[in-house]
Amino acid sequence: MEQASACEFFGCAQLQVPPNKTPQAEACSTEKTESPRRTGATVNALLSGGATDTGMVPRDIPDLLREKLLHPDIMIPPLLWLFSEAASGVTGSRFTANLWDATLLPERAAE
Q1: Domain residues of the chain, as ranges?
Q2: What is the pLDDT of residues 42-85, one digit of tens each?
Q3: Residue whose C-alpha is closest to residue 86's, from 55, 53, 109
């Protein structure tokens, strides 16, 4: 699937993307990076970095498997930074939440 058709099919404003559609969503965000530059809007991709314990995971999976899932709260530190003034000029980037080092200043963690 080409980037343009991926964006048209999945919609760029979609907030939750099923794991099997992540590459298409990333293609969509990459494609949409150029046009917003003229308006001041930014487009970035924030991925959890693995299977995450959300409502998309069946409730009846074994506890052993559930323990291996990432907790959704790992998205909060990079998301807060992306919404901050410090990230206002950041666009066209991909961030992976489970690699975000919360012990660093957010600008350093984003590198």
Answers
A1: 1-32, 43-109
A2: 889 999 999 999 999 999 999 999 999 999 999 999 999 999 99
A3: 109
